Amino acid sequence: xxxxxxxxxxxxxxxSDKVSVTPASGKFCTLATKERMTTPPTYLTExxxxxxxxxxxxxxxxxxxxxxxxxxxxNYVELISGRKLKPSRLGLVLAQGYHLIDKTLxxxxxxxxxxxxxxxIAKGLAKKDDVVKKAIELFSAKFNYFVxxxxxxxxxxxSSFAQLQDVGKPFTRCGLTRRYLQFITGPPPRLYNKTxxxxxxxxxxxxxxxxxxxHCPVQGCxxxxxxxxxxxxxxxFPLCPNCYNNPRPEFGPQPGEDKEPVAKPGDEEDEAKERSxxxxxxxxxxRECPHxxxxxxxxxxxxxxxxxxxxxxxLDPHLGPKWRLVSTREPTxxxxxxxxxxxxxxxxxDEIFGSHMMSIEFKDGESPIVGKKKYTSCFAIDxxxxxxxxxxxxxxxxxxxxxxxxxxxxxRGGGR
Length: 416
Prior knowledge:
By secondary structure, this protein is α+β, with helices and mostly antiparallel strands. Helices cover 29% and strands 24% of the residues.
């Protein structure tokens, strides 16, 4: 056969560099052999993918760009140099799983057929009800078949990804089950509940630490709290993993999320899923307090508005021995005097700003306020304490100040 002759010829070529041209004539020619490796095709560029989609009748001029944007949002591909789309491990495993169970879920034919039927409706060649009925029947059958064979997908994921219960370490307690959540460093960092199989993505851009024994004060939450530190020197904030992933609108906009148009009625669930996907993909860089200032966790620690931002100053949850206030929205740290021994946030609030007042206790014999070992301060308008603090603004160096680090005292502190 032709194949056998080819194999025999390759064998002869490996034994000698002379090959007979016509055996009867006894003529030979010399051939050089080179060893090379095959290379895989390069990744598709955006324009090449658009051409393929148009070729198979997938999408319209208006929707094709949205499809490409969605697969990037969901971390199925990433855009690399040269405007090429590189499939992620998640995207590859999903495609392999769908192909293994029902290849028509991956191949373009079904989608192309649906688009073709829609075009026929537009041209009056098919009735809408008939097309919809046929499509529902088709995908209903595919869904039932997929559910019956979903174990094949589980096998692929199990071999390609480490199971969450096998990684991470017990870190903090869930407020719903009282079971420990596993901390997976990522990226992206996240907590995993083995009992409910719920994943709680955490903010990126800072350091996550334990804060054992503290619980979220929001009614119905009760999750054990974490500490989130950002910047250098670090500013530390309390973090509730449940409230971070399930923000309540009454507390204000969620820090770290891009401002997006309000979801249309009926689309709220889809918008929530998109936010969850972005968090899972580690898209939210948070370099400030991860909770809005109206969240009870932050509000109960707020001792003054921050006159240089729309945030507030809260007592650093690390507490002593180096007592300090940190801004929730700006890289500003207000260091209290070194002779402060203890600071307690009082329930009492000032009538102007609604911030909590502080009880400040100085070390024996070291009080800078004559005759007062204990001192109650409304920091926003307290010129005495403002004159004793040191302020650090972002990358600026620490410097002693009679107020806001040489920026004209507390600025709006006493006049607001």
